[in-house]
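Backbone Fold Data
Goal — fold tokens
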Amino acid sequence: MTEQPNDETKPAEADAPAAPAHRGPPIVVAEEKLSERGEETAFMLAQTLGSLVMESAGREDTPWALVDAKDLHAACEKCRDGELNTDMLNVLLAVDWVEKIQVVYVLYSTSNNRKVILRADLPAGSPSVASVTDLWEAAGWFERETHDLFGVAFPGNDDMEPLLLYDGFEGFPGLKSYPLHDYEEW
């Protein structure tokens, strides 16, 4: 018969909190490494933006650059009108990092099949960045969605009517601080 350990003989690991359950295959995060084509695009992005770039890296063939929020519109315009020729705003999204809101613009060039990502950090308390609807008309929908979910203001966008939520909805459900209520199935 095997003796059961008492509280004094339990290993220290048993007292440690259990890691959250993860279903599915292990999560593998891609290495921040650019391919040869990505390096070419990153060089073009650096040449286009110059001193506006605060930080940069990338994965595979897609480089990204972090710019100051006040310079984001100018950076987008330079990418659209310069050598990169990013004539399409593929997506605009936001990420809640609790201490900041990061807006992410994925820009695509249909003529040279290149994609770049521009990022800007906004203060969590009052996130605001200039609208790019004058550069890409499709930005209007993305900006409305980002405002609905994260509360980001886009000065220059004249149509900030709710896109996903109803008029009068309280709060911003994309934020980590938004209370998610449990529900009971019936």
User: Anything to note?
Assistant: The two ends are 47 Å apart (CA to CA).
